[in-house]
Amino acid sequence: MRKKIALVGAGNIGGTIALLAGLKDLADITLIDVAEGLPEGKGLDLSQVAPIMGFNARIYGTNDMAEGLQGADAIVVTAGLARKPGMSRDDLLKTNAEIIKSIAHQIRDHASEAFVVVVTNPLDAMVWVMQQESGLPPHKVVGMAGILDSARFRSFLAAEFNVSVLDVRALVLGGHGDTMVPLLSHSSVGGINLEELVHTGSISAERLEEIIERTRQGGVEIVNHLKTGSAFFAPAAAALEMVEAYLKDQKRILPCAAYLSGEYGAEGIYVGVPVILGGEGVEEIIELALTEEEQESLTTSIKAVQTLIERLDTL
Q1: Cα separation, 101 vs 215, whole angstroms
Q2: Distance (Å, rounded) from C-alpha 286 to C-alpha 126?
Q3: What is each CA distance from 143 to 66, 199, 228, in whole angstroms?
Q4: 276 with 282: CB under 8 angstroms?
Q5: Which of 110, 139, 176, 186 is flagged as catalytic?
Q6: How far apart are CA 257 and CA 180, in angstroms?
Q7: Whole-angstrom distance, CA of residue 19 vs CA of residue 233
Q8: Is 176 a catalytic residue?
Q9: What is the pLDDT of residue 227?
Q10: Phi–psi pair at 32, nearest 5 degrees
Q11: Do you find a cis peptide bond into 122, omega within 30 degrees of 0?
């Protein structure tokens, strides 16, 4: 029996996930959106890619949440207000929290066995709302951020060193925002640790810090270029990597916003950390040995996420 992926939100990210999942023949795909005609139109268009590209995944769209969610093995939630120039992720907090609550109740009622990936910003707070409101087990609800942030860091490093992105390893933890924590001790170019590359003079500490800051502002940079939209190709690819790891039980080690119960000094919140992602969802949270500076930065990021969650009670 074919698997089913439900995409809640048929915008640019949802549409791109549908296309990529179809090209992989990963599962049948349903696009769900409140905008009349949007998911149906995109679903019809995407279904007509199948005979050209040679895949059998069935893709369709609907405005009916119950119909779209029914029988879903995996759900990706991208619905919500997108950022505009000058907006921070925090500005989206109240509006998107209400949207996520509504979707969470629908998932609880129609797809309570599914694995859920949240993409909506502010990410760490929204995935917490999703888990709390849906009542799904924490290991079956995750947030997409670390894969995207790590990919941005890798792409910038590859460009700086003029090497293939395949030879760059990078890991970014913490909240998805200005306090994210690129781990220099666990990132490398050609197998050589970034700290060692600074020590040998291959890159200056100042230049590396500029790349780190560009990574932190990666989403803002794209928003400022697009004017009327935000990033969607890379976020879609990152979300699909998580879904594929779950559906195929790949046991991938990936950075995801996962529910912490004491790991890294956090309790009862979602923060980006490395996990083993497989057929049970988050099967293990990996606790890395961090430098003192990295742990301090991660603690600061955790506190920022906690502040966002506390603000939800006052809105």
Answers
A1: 30
A2: 22
A3: 22, 35, 24
A4: yes
A5: 176
A6: 12
A7: 11
A8: yes
A9: 87
A10: -125, 135
A11: yes
- Check: CB of residue 255 under 8 Å from CB of residue 175: no
pLDDT of residue 90: 62
User: Amino acid letter at 171?
Assistant: L
CA distance 286 to 157: 24
pLDDT at 251: 98
Q: Which residues contact 170 (CB under 8 A, 6 or more apart)?
A: 150, 153, 154, 157, 182, 187, 188
Kind and range of the H or E element at 207?
A: helix 205-216
Question: What is the pLDDT at residue 314?
Answer: 80
Instruction: Determine the distance from the C-alpha atom of residue 86 to the mean position of all C-alpha atoms in its chain, rounded to a whole number.
Output: 22
The pLDDT of residue 84: 64
Which pLDDT value is given to residue 81? 85
The single-letter code of the amino acid at 168 is V
Token digits for 34?
A: 């409140």
Distance CA(38)–CA(32), nearest Å, equals 9
Low-confidence ranges of the chain (pLDDT < 50): none
User: For residue 22, which of 244, 271, 248, 311 has the smallest C-alpha distance?
Assistant: 244
This prediction has a pTM of: 0.96
Phi, psi angles (nearest 5°) of residue 123: -55, -55
Q: Is 67 exposed, middle or buried (0-12, 13-18, 19+ CB in 10 A)?
A: middle
Residues 138 and 132: their CA atoms lie apart, in Å, by 9
For residue 246, what are the CA distances in angstroms to 2, 19, 53, 66, 76?
14, 18, 25, 23, 12
DSSP strand E in the chain: where?
4-8, 28-32, 59-62, 74-77, 115-118, 141-143, 168-169, 172-173, 181-182, 188-189, 192-193, 252-261, 267-278, 281-285
DSSP 140: G
Taking the C-alpha atoms of residue 107 and residue 102, their distance in angstroms, rounded to an integer, is 9
